[in-house]
Amino acid sequence: xxMKYKVNVRxxxxxxxxxxxxxxxxWSQGKTEAEALANIKDAIQAYxxxxxxxxxxxxxxxxxxx
Length: 66
Fold this sequence. Notes:
The protein has one helix spanning 33-55; strands spanning 8-11, 16-19, 27-30. By secondary structure, the protein is of the alpha+beta class.
């Protein structure tokens, strides 16, 4: 299943910083804006996999919003 995440991008002295306001601590960077956006996709995937691993066997539930 594909999901869309809103990201913020800021030009820095080193290139571009990008982060996901809805996923605290999920950020990346790149020399170009395109590179930063490609890198944040990997960061989001790793973030979600980590959350899934940390919540195994914790009595979690899924709810549908919308």
